Amino acid sequence: MSSKEISITDAATVWEPLLRSILEWNPEPEDKDAVVRFVPPPKLFAELKSRLEVGRQNGSPPEFVLETVKFVLRHCVNTSHPLWVNQLYGGVHPLGLAASFLVEKMNTNAHTFEAAPVFVLAEGMVLGEARKLFYEGVERGDGIFAPGGSFANMYGFMAARHVKFPQAKETGFFGLPPLVLFTSEESHYSVSKAAVWMGLGLDNVVKVPTNREGEMRPDALQIAIQEVKASGRVPLAVNATAGTTVLGAFDPLIPISKVCEDEGVWLHVDAAWGGSFIFSPRLRGLHLRGISRADSIAWNAHKMLGAPLQCSLFLSRHEDILRGCNSLGPSSAPYLFQQDKSCYEVAWDGLGDKSFQCGRKADGFKLWLMWVGLGLDGFQTLIESAEDASQYFYSKIAERKEEFLPYLDGPQTTNVFFWYIPPRLRGSARDEEWWSEISKVTVGLKERMVFDGGRLLLGYAPLPYKGLPNALRLVLPAYPPKSTTHMDTILRLITTYGEDL
Amino acid sequence: MSSKEISITDAATVWEPLLRSILEWNPEPEDKDAVVRFVPPPKLFAELKSRLEVGRQNGSPPEFVLETVKFVLRHCVNTSHPLWVNQLYGGVHPLGLAASFLVEKMNTNAHTFEAAPVFVLAEGMVLGEARKLFYEGVERGDGIFAPGGSFANMYGFMAARHVKFPQAKETGFFGLPPLVLFTSEESHYSVSKAAVWMGLGLDNVVKVPTNREGEMRPDALQIAIQEVKASGRVPLAVNATAGTTVLGAFDPLIPISKVCEDEGVWLHVDAAWGGSFIFSPRLRGLHLRGISRADSIAWNAHKMLGAPLQCSLFLSRHEDILRGCNSLGPSSAPYLFQQDKSCYEVAWDGLGDKSFQCGRKADGFKLWLMWVGLGLDGFQTLIESAEDASQYFYSKIAERKEEFLPYLDGPQTTNVFFWYIPPRLRGSARDEEWWSEISKVTVGLKERMVFDGGRLLLGYAPLPYKGLPNALRLVLPAYPPKSTTHMDTILRLITTYGEDL
Question: At which residues is N6-(pyridoxal phosphate)lysine found (chains A, B) (predicted)?
Answer without folding.
Answer: 303
